[in-house]
Amino acid sequence: MSYHDVEGLRYFTFDGLDDLNVDHAIITRRGGVSRAPYESLNLGGTVGDDPSRVRQNQRLVMSALELPDESIYDVWQVHGDVVVSTDGPRPNDQPHQQADATLTDRPGVTLLMRFADCVPILLYDPIKSVVGIAHAGWKGTVLRTAAQAVVAMQEKYESHPADLWAGIGPSIGPHHYEVGAQVESEVLGAFGQDASELLNSPNGKGQGVQFDLWTANQIVLSQAGVRNIEISGVCTACDLDNWYSHRDEGGTTGRFGALITL
Hints:
The protein has 262 residues and is of the alpha+beta class. It has a single domain, classed as CNF1/YfiH-like putative cysteine hydrolases (4-Layer Sandwich), CATH 3.60.140.10. The protein is built from 7 helices and 15 strands. The strands form 3 sheets. A 6-stranded mixed β-sheet has the order 1-2-3-15-7-4. The longest helix has 14 residues, at 51-64. The radius of gyration is 17 Å and the shape is globular. It starts with a strand and ends with a strand.
């Protein structure tokens, strides 16, 4: 993983995608115009921030990365497993489609999603020239949204999972992610014997269970046939100077962006 500072903004890139010369970024919260409690590079338009500041933040990001602002394709993320593919950007007057993974094989389309503890998962097929992003909180992880994106790449673009590269980005780490009995039950049902690797009770049985989203999504991708997986290991709740954390900031905060383009 590498950090880059451009025009006052800071963003993270995966070493694997850098080696493959794929334009991508997971953008930190630094360098924007939003005020507290969203300071400063908030890209979330539904969290209570001034919409004009959110739009300005988006323009700052695209300018710093030398990408056209009108190239963006984004969706309304709803913690599900729907995957959509697109042949072009989303026009400003077109409503957002509900989905939690997006794909494209068209150069000039910038896929963008927004996060604050959930896991950003970037996908790239260097053979078929396809990119994607998946959004996975605990619900998306249990629903195996990343695997649904891989299946969609196979069906839509004839991708082979073994050819794919995947990056699991900054999100809340297991040491900060305590979950309740319902989530624990869902994880046990979804992952079976692998669940013991994902659920940890550091203070003893019945004293609070921590869920490892990073390893869970690595398992999801591996079982879908993906071999090349890079995990950032960056915890959003540990570093509020760089990242927004819905959990650590009490639910009122901004959203950082993740993008990828051919």
